[in-house]
Batch of 4 targets.
Target 1
Amino acid sequence: MTIVRRFNNQMPDISNIFDDFFGGDFFNSPASSGRRSVPSVNVRETQDEYEIEVAAPGLNKDDFKVEVNNNVLTISCERDENKEESERGYTRREFCYTGFRRSFAIPRNEVDESKIDAAYKDGILRIKLHKREEVKPKPARMIEIK
């Protein structure tokens, strides 16, 4: 089962279309997108859980909002840019997040919504979506022949 990325507000904005097609380096630069960029995400599946890793350096755990609604996991961040940081004379800034929003459709009836954990450490937000016991693979068992 794959966790599916959803666009914000059900309609992709033009920067998301270009980002998906061209890789985002030119069209999704902080200067062209109003200092809003989307962090990279890794998604992996184990027998017990799905794990989403969001690369968001320079933020605090209080900057994030993680919510689940109608089988959609939404990760967002809204942060005011520090004026002192913006006046340091950067030539190019790529890891400055003043805000972003990522949404993922989670598999129906596979994830236990009451057992979703999130932790932020070393610039990575890790979200673990634990699978329901009934969908986890069962070990093989021998059946007695009568």
Target 2
Amino acid sequence: MGRQRQIKAKSGNNELTLHDHESDSPIVPIAQIERLHAIRPDKVDWIFQQTEAESTARREQAKRINTYVFIERLVGVFCAFLIAAGGLAGAIWLASIGGHEVSASAIGGTTLVSMVSAFIYSGRQKK
């Protein structure tokens, strides 16, 4: 949300006032719109048009970012599947040709343990 501050300093007949408005929203505060309307009424509509354009651009950017994150995650899962399938296929092949049961067990076990560990670790890291 926004934050608004006002600081006043007074010395004798002199007074200094500082207004500060901080917001993550593209909407201009109403008080500033009212002052602008008093000075240049034609610019108020322009401000609203620019605010609408800014909102549209923000929504498009957020949608594009969400799409790229989704694609990145799908590619990651697909690559993990390929690695796991390759490791298990290699282990099955070694076991089927005979005489390499220990190697097949090591490769298959390591593949499964590393994939499970990677998924568990990535799930904990996001929280």
Target 3
Amino acid sequence: MNLFDLSGKTAVIIGGNSTLGGSMAVALGGHGADVAIVGRNMEKCEQVVKQIEEVGGKAKSFSADATSTEDLQRVLTEVLAWTGRVDVLMNCPGKNSATPFFEITMEEWDSIMDVNLKGVVLACQVFGKYMVEKGEGGSIINISSVSSEPPLSRVFTYSASKAAVNNLTKNLAREFAPSRVRVNAIIPGFFPAEQNRKILSPERIASIMTHTPMNRFGEAQELQGAAVYLASEKASGFVTGSLLRVDGGFGAMTI
């Protein structure tokens, strides 16, 4: 019995050229899914495609701006021409800033909200509509953050955007459930991804470790199991509207 076999499925990974998105994309490809890597940096996309091929998977890169409906609609058309189906959507784009609250401009606010929230909304409209109308079920996996519930200092806009992603996830889970399209989110803890390296001073690292019972950062591959689990209807067919923590216990800490 293999609950995690994704053979015959197609997964679209928006932001699949990122550190965490790329690792999860490799896992989906390694478990049999055809994987569409979507991003703006095609060189990084191709690197992830090669990693998927190295584990015996099938993948292809697609260029798109995650905040453009036209780009996402084009990618849907191109993926359907490639494999004839879309079964899994993963939303991984992320943008962050450590700007002090009183210095945040609305240009910066809009830029972060566009990538972290608007991009998820648009992808769910384009690919979610396809899944709902096709009527064969599907899985949407949004990537949230530990800052989405207790907000973290110095990342005001990012925290607000990820809190909205959690709410959107639960709303769409309710909306799409009659069509067997499941919508869940992964809440990663602190991983050495590009968007959080710049704000990790020695003092901040010490604070993070104090609040992380496992007393270490996560490794990108430690998100792979969660991604495969939520992508597989056989493994998580009755799971929707959930926020799955992979955070070393960070969310369990108070004082």
Target 4
Amino acid sequence: MAAFAFPKPPTAFAFDPSSKKTRRIEDPRHLAFIRLLPSVVSGEYGCEACHIRAGSAVHRKKWTGKGQKPDDCWTLPLTPEEHRQQHSGEELAFWRSHEIDPFELAVRLYEVSGDVQAAEQIIRKVRHV
């Protein structure tokens, strides 16, 4: 009897270690837009575009290490101090402590990229202001 090789069942690309490396998507206009917005944590202006390194199977976003940057759509506005806090510890704990789902928020801001008023309204709702 001949042996047949069965392919591995498909997995979410974001968590498949055998998947080929894909080129990250850069979007300098979106990064510039994010820097115009108030912080999603404090509401202060003068923000940096902060990449979310954590992963989410629901959003098909892979984890990225310190030597890697995620696609530019996965960014949120934070002040420089908040940005350091975001990356100094466990990132998802940082977001939980502020009761923010960073993945959903990044998706929503990317959907309105370029529209500052719409983005500010989204951020106010997230901040409960």
